[in-house]
């Protein structure tokens, strides 16, 4: 298990004795960016944690306050933020390398029907998620959750798996999932396809509006008139709108000023903005200045690997470039709010996460250093600047000062040439028990490089697996609803329907060609490429 370094006389004397074992009670010391209502920043502060919860936050006065006098103190030498929250992603696709988009699309129906997309993205992911050999779906889930974790994300959206008849049951992995919270927090529903009619919108969205639970939908993703017309399917025959605080809308690229005002006037939960993916597919993004002017709450999400950033650290940089292009639309603090307190509020989770305050869950992102403005510091950061990521009080990844690299079960990796320790491997009865990031990466590297062979293996195994129960697999949500029984040959791509691909590094800082692949996209505006 992980450990924390103690602040003791031995520590101060540079005798680096360690506190051995993961304490249930400990104190973090560093600059604390609370993101609370007062936006308090404590230059030399502490956060006291008991089990999975923040107990106390305050200014450091030389020693821990009662009742934490004997608790180990973590000398972070850094800045402590709430863990980052992402309300738009498709994690099951995040092992697929960036797709070389062939043209500008007017709506998502066009690219979903594109033959190159099907071979590169859809067939690849379906094969890895639905493969009868469990090594592939397990490795995929381990890789994509670590991809989020290594970017400071502690809560995400969109990861499912199937287990026998339990269609879309929750996989309890590293990061929190808004659709299936482990605790009794509001449970989000989502819908990735377009509502076909007002009646379908009422059928699917209506119960969430009545219950006051969050409902996340992809809304008006595209730029053409037909995409804009989808918005009208949220209107009932009597002219009232199927909109309320439960509705959290992703994209909204086709919407205009009047549409954003309708969302605002009907107290929609908010908008999740994914600017890079929008630009790569459609040549432009949401008219975010109109959404802001209408008073909508705005959160930021990466979308997915085929046309997005690696994690929220990257998408924040994209949002900053777009904001600056629009004359400084958002302050640095507002952009940080869009990945912390704002998405927490949109989910109805603001009583639990999104800020660093007493009684909140102990979810933290810790960055190295304390000298820079805390908000611009987060916008400037890459994965190598992360000192630690803590979820529910447990340090899941961090430098050796945060996670003991010698403890059994802890995995060592390199990020930008620096040692990083991961506390991610669970017990043997966990679905991913024994699946390290290293083994997962090796498996995914092989699978992508040998996709036709992997497809042949699937075709050979599938007939012997029909009707098999209790074997889980992640669901590629763009393929919902699931077609056919588990392991049916009809659901598995054939060897001639996939091509070998190359795995991308899991972090942007270790992927020197990442920015060049964005620049090579034919749709991304020149002004944006110039800023990369």
Describe, in short, the structure shown.
The chain is an alpha/beta fold. It contains 17 helices and 20 strands. The protein has helices at 9-12, 108-112, 115-130, 135-149, 198-211, 225-229, 257-265, 275-282, 288-293, 312-325, 332-337, 341-346, 374-380, 437-449, 451-461, 514-519, 526-531; strands at 25-33, 41-50, 53-59, 73-82, 84-85, 153-156, 161-163, 166-169, 176-177, 189-191, 215-219, 247-251, 270-273, 298-300, 364-368, 386-391, 394-398, 411-415, 418-422, 472-474.
Give your account of this protein's structure:
The protein is an alpha/beta fold and 532 residues long. The protein has a domain of 279 residues: Metal-dependent hydrolases (TIM Barrel, Alpha-Beta Barrel), CATH 3.20.20.140. 28% of the residues lie in helices and 19% in strands. The protein is built from 17 helices and 20 strands. The chain starts with 8 loop residues before the first helix and ends with a helix. The N terminus is likely disordered.
Indicate the topology:
Elements: H1 9-12, E1 25-33, E2 41-50, E3 53-59, E4 73-82, E5 84-85, H2 108-112, H3 115-130, H4 135-149, E6 153-156, E7 161-163, E8 166-169, E9 176-177, E10 189-191, H5 198-211, E11 215-219, H6 225-229, E12 247-251, H7 257-265, E13 270-273, H8 275-282, H9 288-293, E14 298-300, H10 312-325, H11 332-337, H12 341-346, E15 364-368, H13 374-380, E16 386-391, E17 394-398, E18 411-415, E19 418-422, H14 437-449, H15 451-461, E20 472-474, H16 514-519, H17 526-531
Parallel strand pairs: 1-4, 5-6, 6-9, 10-11, 11-12, 12-13, 13-14
Antiparallel strand pairs: 1-2, 2-3, 4-15, 7-8, 7-20, 15-16, 16-17, 17-19, 18-19
Helix pairs in contact: 4-14
């Amino acid at each position: 298990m992980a450990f924390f370094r103690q602040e003791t006389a031995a520590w101060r004397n540079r005798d680096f004795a360690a506190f051995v074992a993961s304490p249930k009670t400990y104190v973090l010391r560093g600059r604390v960016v609370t993101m609370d209502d007062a936006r308090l920043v404590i230059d030399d502060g502490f956060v006291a944690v008991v089990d999975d919860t923040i107990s106390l936050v305050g200014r450091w006065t030389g020693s821990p306050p009662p009742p934490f006098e004997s608790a180990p103190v973590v000398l972070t030498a850094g800045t402590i933020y709430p863990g980052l929250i992402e309300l738009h992603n498709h994690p099951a696709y995040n092992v697929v390398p960036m797709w070389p988009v062939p043209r500008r699309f007017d709506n998502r129906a066009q690219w979903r029907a594109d033959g190159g997309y099907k071979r590169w993205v859809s067939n690849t992911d379906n094969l890895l998620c639905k493969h009868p050999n469990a090594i592939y779906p397990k490795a995929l889930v381990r890789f994509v959750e670590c991809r989020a974790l290594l970017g400071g994300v502690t809560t995400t959206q969109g990861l499912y798996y199937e287990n026998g008849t339990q269609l879309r049951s929750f996989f309890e992995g590293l990061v929190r999932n808004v659709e299936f919270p482990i605790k009794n927090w509001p449970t989000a529903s989502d819908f990735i396809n377009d509502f076909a009619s007002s009646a379908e919108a009422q059928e699917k969205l209506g119960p969430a509006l009545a219950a006051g639970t969050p409902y996340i939908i992809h809304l008006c993703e595209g730029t053409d008139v037909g995409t804009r017309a989808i918005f009208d399917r949220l209107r009932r025959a009597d002219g009232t709108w199927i909109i309320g605080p439960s509705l959290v809308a992703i994209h909204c690229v086709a919407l205009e000023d009047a549409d954003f005002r309708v969302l605002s006037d009907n107290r929609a939960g908010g908008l999740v903005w994914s600017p890079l993916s929008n630009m790569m597919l459609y040549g432009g993004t949401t008219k975010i200045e109109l959404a802001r002017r209408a008073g909508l709450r705005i959160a930021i999400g990466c979308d997915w690997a085929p046309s997005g950033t690696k994690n929220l650290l990257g998408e924040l940089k994209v949002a900053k470039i777009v904001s600056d292009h629009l004359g400084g639309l958002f302050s640095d603090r507002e952009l940080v709010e869009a990945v912390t307190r704002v998405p927490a509020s949109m989910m109805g989770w603001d009583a639990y996460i999104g800020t660093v305050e007493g009684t909140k869950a102990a979810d933290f992102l810790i960055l190295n250093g304390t000298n820079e403005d805390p908000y611009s510091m987060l916008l400037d950061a890459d994965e190598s600047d992360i000192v630690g990521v803590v979820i529910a009080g447990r340090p899941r990844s961090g430098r050796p000062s945060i996670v003991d690299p010698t403890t059994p079960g802890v995995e060592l990796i390199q990020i930008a040439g620096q040692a990083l320790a991961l506390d991610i491997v669970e017990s043997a009865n966990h679905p991913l028990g024994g699946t390290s990031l290293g083994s997962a990466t090796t498996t995914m590297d092989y699978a992508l490089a040998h996709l036709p062979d992997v497809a042949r293996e699937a075709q050979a195994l599938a007939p012997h697996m029909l009707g098999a129960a209790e074997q889980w697999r992640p669901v590629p949500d763009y393929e919902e609803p699931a077609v056919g029984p588990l392991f049916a040959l009809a659901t598995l791509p054939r060897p001639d329907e996939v091509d070998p691909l190359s795995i991308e590094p899991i972090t942007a800082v270790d992927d020197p060609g990442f920015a060049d692949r964005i620049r090579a996209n034919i749709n991304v505006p020149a002004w944006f490429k110039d800023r990369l």
